[in-house]
Design brief:
5-stranded mixed beta sheet; 6-stranded mixed beta sheet; alpha/beta; 279 residues
Amino acid sequence: MIGLKIKHWTVFAAVAFASLGAFAAQTLTIAVVPQFSARQVFSNWTPLLKRVGDLAGVEFKLRFYDSIPLFEAGFLAGEPDLAYMNPYHMVMAKNAAGYQPIIRDDESRLSGILVVRKDSPVTKLSQLQGQRVAFPAPNAFGASLYMRALLAREAKVDIKPVYVKTHPNVYRHVLLGEAVAGGGVSRTLDDERNEVQTQLRVLYTTPNVYSHPIAVHPRVEPELAVRIQKAFLALAQDPANAELYKDILVPKPVKAQYSEYASLDKLDLDQFVVRAGPK
């Protein structure tokens, strides 16, 4: 019976989107916050973007940035048509360029983690006073921005931040002893090989927030933005596409709205934001 319902829904979705063939395919750029290497981003996102694009009558072109600060400079200038960004990036992007979220994951919430080596003598935050702590980038929300604010305000700890571009780099800096601790998020640690995970210990976890949204620039016509949103949601109904959504870290996509992120604007994190210089 379940299989029959899925089959009927799939047929319904196909009929509902059949009229999209009448639209001339438009090319839109989409940028993904570089938590991982460009190669991995390309591998994870391309298959699903192709299917979403076919369904919505759009051709997506991935736009790559070498670092999170450059990614930030890009969306603050309104460069990509769409962007997958962290929660506080959403606030920055809305305020600077008018981006609006259209899709987010509803399976889990985002929380930052601070990891140390499993054999580290560090057992409490106060022991990080004056120590080198690795982060992917200054404004990576859960892994760095929120984490640094909490360390300074709540734990009263003054650390020496080291920015190493990606989450995998953070974990390796900690494993190699180049930093006493490192900031990340649970899902990127879960994505690591078992030999990496088993050598690290989570020292601290931040309060959680809604996860990374896919946001659209206001120059994208509202009707087109809705088609893209519907295509993301329609394809997710087919269990055959489940792995594609897991690959982009949006295993259970739902409609997103800015009100879900607006409260972050009240956290007064601006003093911890590091603005990117010229590209």
